[in-house]
Design goal:
single chain; 187 residues; alpha/beta; Double Stranded RNA Binding Domain; SHC Adaptor Protein; 2 domains; four-stranded mixed beta sheet; 5 helices; 32% helix; globular
């Protein structure tokens, strides 16, 4: 398991790095086959007690699990992010195991069955989300600016469109900062 620890706009000490190594080392027991764990801490302001954004990302085969936490203390932010990640892992493991029992997934995840149970008992109580509505729509070729304008006119946080230049399906979305982002397939 490869571990990457980055500080953006701040210096992370050896104490924090050792803390991250000790805490994230336990993840392999609950989710075998982790290829990479990435911890990024971003300073939001020049003030020392300002909240810091901590992103914890786990890469396993073709899956990414990601959580984000805000706290002035990066140690507390990591603990909270790990709690959130444990819930994500429980959901992920439950879905993979359900699919495997249905025959949709080959036995490549048999190691999940032998993995340790998570240290909390809420694993069984996690409700499986389901699709409750399917909406069909037509796509009209448009530019990115037109897609953002259409998204704003509809009052949505995202908008799916066909890009006029290359004919690929893309998604524009509103970020928490108020700016916009775009998702596009790799070529």
């Amino acid at each position: 398991m490869e571990l990457t620890i980055q500080g953006h706009g701040m210096e992370l000490g050896n104490g924090f790095e050792n803390f991250v190594r000790r805490k994230t080392g336990k993840l392999e027991r609950y989710l075998p086959g982790i290829e990479e764990v990435r911890v990024e801490v971003t300073r939001q302001s020049a003030k020392e007690d300002a909240p810091k954004q901590l992103e914890l990302t786990i890469r396993r085969r073709r899956t990414l699990l990601r959580v984000e936490e805000h706290n002035a203390d990066p140690f507390a932010a990591l603990d909270a992010a790990l709690d959130k990640m444990n819930h994500r892992i429980a959901r992920y493991k439950g879905r993979r195991m359900d699919r495997r029992h249905d025959g949709a997934i080959p036995d490549e995840d048999a190691e999940l069955a032998q993995a340790e149970a998570l240290p909390f008992t809420e694993e069984e109580n996690i409700a499986e989300p389901k699709v409750v509505r399917i909406k069909n729509f037509t796509t009209v070729p448009m530019s990115t600016d037109e897609a953002v304008e259409q998204m704003e006119l509809l009052g949505h946080d995202f908008f799916v469109f066909m890009h006029a230049d290359d004919g690929t399906i893309k998604v524009v979305y509103r970020r928490k900062s108020g700016d916009y982002g775009m998702l596009q397939p790799e070529k």
